[in-house]
Specification:
105 residues, single chain, mainly beta, 10 strands, 0% helix, four-stranded antiparallel sheet, Jelly Rolls
Length: 105
């Protein structure tokens, strides 16, 4: 797994593509999918074809009302630090949503 590195190309920050990219399809809207974080991963970047929620402990859920106890799932994160995370839970209200995860050491 590649290390996360930022390069300056003509003063524009860019990064390499990881050699560890996962993709999951939320086959049924509202049903969470679990993804095991690969060994050695520290950072994950997300891209998706629809809004999605993620949770690093427990099962992600699309909120149907207020969640004010600190247990809500996170909407559309760009990236997360996952060094101490073993599983990601992902959910979208859109069936067929594709979520890509790009992992870095």
């Amino acid at each position: 797994m590649k290390q996360f590195t930022i390069y300056a190309d003509d003063d524009v920050p860019v990064r390499e593509m990881s050699d560890t990219v996962y993709s999951t399809v939320i086959s049924v809207g509202g049903t969470a999918e679990s993804v095991t974080v690969p060994a050695g991963a520290r950072i994950v970047f997300f891209k998706a074809t629809a809004d999605f929620y993620v949770k690093t402990s427990g099962t992600a859920a699309v909120p149907s009302g207020d969640v004010l106890d600190g247990s809500a799932s996170l909407l559309n994160p760009e990236s997360l630090y996952v060094e101490r995370v073993s599983t990601l839970s992902l959910v979208s209200s859109s069936g067929g949503a594709i979520i890509n995860m790009e992992f870095f050491a």
